[in-house]
Design goal:
- The structure holds 2 protein chains of 2 kinds.
- Chain A is α/β, with parallel strands linked by helices.
- Chain A folds into 2 domains: 2-109 and 252-326, 3-Layer(bba) Sandwich (FAD/NAD(P)-binding domain); 113-248, FAD/NAD(P)-binding domain, CATH 3.50.50.
- Helix content of chain A is 32%, strand content 24%.
- The longest helix of chain A is centred in the C-terminal third of the chain and has 21 residues, at 296-316.
- The relative contact order of chain A is 0.16.
- Chain B has a single domain (4-73), classed as TusA-like domain (Translation Initiation Factor IF3, 2-Layer Sandwich), CATH 3.30.110.40.
- Chain B has helices at residues 17-27, 43-54, and strands at 4-8, 33-38, 57-64, 67-73.
- Chain B has a 4-stranded mixed sheet, with helices on one face.
- Chain B is globular, with a radius of gyration of 11 Å.
- The two termini of chain B are 15 Å apart.
- In chain B, 43% of the residues are buried.
- The model of chain B has no long low-confidence stretch (mean pLDDT 94).
- The chains are: A alpha/beta, B alpha+beta.
- Chains A and B meet through loops of A and helix 1 and helix 2 of B.
Chain lengths: 377, 76
Amino acid sequence: MKILIVGGGMAGTILANNLARRLHGELRSGKVKLTMLSASERHMYQPGLLYLALGRMTPDELYRDQASLLEPGIAFFVDPVEEFQLDQNRVKTKSGTVFDFDILVIATGSRPVPELIPGLAENSETFYTEETAVKMFRKLQAFAGGRVVIAMGVPHKCPMAPLEITFMLHDYFKDRGIRDKVQLHYTYPIGRVHSLENVAKWAAPEFERLGITYETLFNVKEVDGAAKVVKSEEGSEAPYDLLISIPAHRGMEVIEKNKLGAGGWIPTHRHQLTMEGRKNVYVIGDTTNLPISKAGSTAHFEAEALGENIAAIVKLGSPVRDYDGKVFCFIEAGKDRATYAMFDYQNPPDPKAPTKAVHWFKTAYNKLYWVSARGLL
Amino acid sequence: MSEKKVIDARGSFCPGPLMELIGWIKLANVGDELELLSTDKGSAADVPEWVHKVGHELVGVREEAGVWHVTVRKAK
C-alpha cells in the first residue's frame, strides 16, 4: 500500500512519524510505502515567531532540517506538488515526477495574505514570517511612544495570537520604562474581545485592569498610511502611530489552482477527516475547511487521530475512531504568566487564571516541540 | 451567477460561527447567499447585528432541532 503525505509542516510531520511507528513492520517488509513531499528542506516552529518579534527567541531557534525530524522508513522529497490528479490516484510534482498513492493526505497548510487589505502590508508590522517578525522586532526597539493599534484579518492562524501579542506588548513596553508613553488599542472582528466566550470574559477585564483600550466589531477594510488611520468595514476609524497586524490567511495556491477548495480550504469531513466526496484522500491541519482553530494543536490532534485510523485501515481494513474536534491552545498573558484553552466540538473551554507555571510549561514546549514533531509527545 | 453556500459552523467555539461567516463572505461574490449553521444560540443575535452594521442583507433566521440557520446575502 502506498501512503503519500503532501506537506511537511506540523500536521504532515506528526502523521508521518506516527505512521512510521505504527507500521514499522509493514514498512520493513515492504507491504507499506510511506512517502512525504514538502516544499521545504527546513521545518519551522511557527509559534516561535511571536517571541522572535519581541526579541525573546532568535531565528536559528525556529528551524530544524526536516529530514532530521523524520523516522527511518519515510521516503522524503523536497519536491512540491503542482497537480493533484485524484481520479487517477496520483500527483505530479514541480520536478515533473509522478507519485501514485492508495491513500493521500493533504497537509499543505496556509499562508498569510496581508495584500488582500489595501495598505496593510506596507503600513503594519506583523510576525507571521521570519522576515516580518525581525522587522517588527527592530521597529519595536525604535518605538519611543505613541498609539499602538492591534488589528487583524479573518481567518487568521493561531486565534490566541491577537491576545498574546497585546498582553506581551504591555509587558514589553513596561520593561522598557515607556508603558506610560504608549497607548495600546486592541480591535477584534466580532462583538467581544475573543471568539471563545469564556476567554473573552477573562480578557476584557484584564485589558481594563492594564489600561488597554479595545473596540469590537472591527474588521479591517483598508489602511491609510499617509493619515496613519485604520478604517473598518463597520465604518469606524482607528488612528495609530504603530500598527500591529495579524493578517488574514488563505490555503496554499496549489489547492486553489487544482480547484480542491475555495480560498485554498478543502471541504473535509469533520470526524473522518476525509476530503468530501473522496474515500482515500484525507485533509489535516490548516488546509481543512473545518470550523475549528487554525493552530498547531489542531494539526497535532488531527494527525494523531488520522495516524491511528490509517494504521487501522492497513491492519484491520477500516478506521477505528473519530476526530472529536480537540484543540489545546496556550495563551500567553504577558511575559511571565499564561493560561490555556482546551475544547472540542461538544465542550467549550474553561480557562483558569494565568499562572507562572503554565507560562513555564509553554516556554518548555517551545523546546519540546521538536519532540512533538517527531510524534513522541 | 449568484450561488448559495452552506457554512457548517456547528460545534464551533473558535473561531466561532460569526468569524466563520466573516471569513467566507470575503470569498463570496456580491449577491451570493450564505447559510450559516450554528449550534450557538447567540448567533441568532450577533450575526444579524454584524450584518446590519456592515451593510449586508439578512435573508432569514430560523431554528431547527437546536441548529440556527442564519442566511445572509452579500450586498457589497
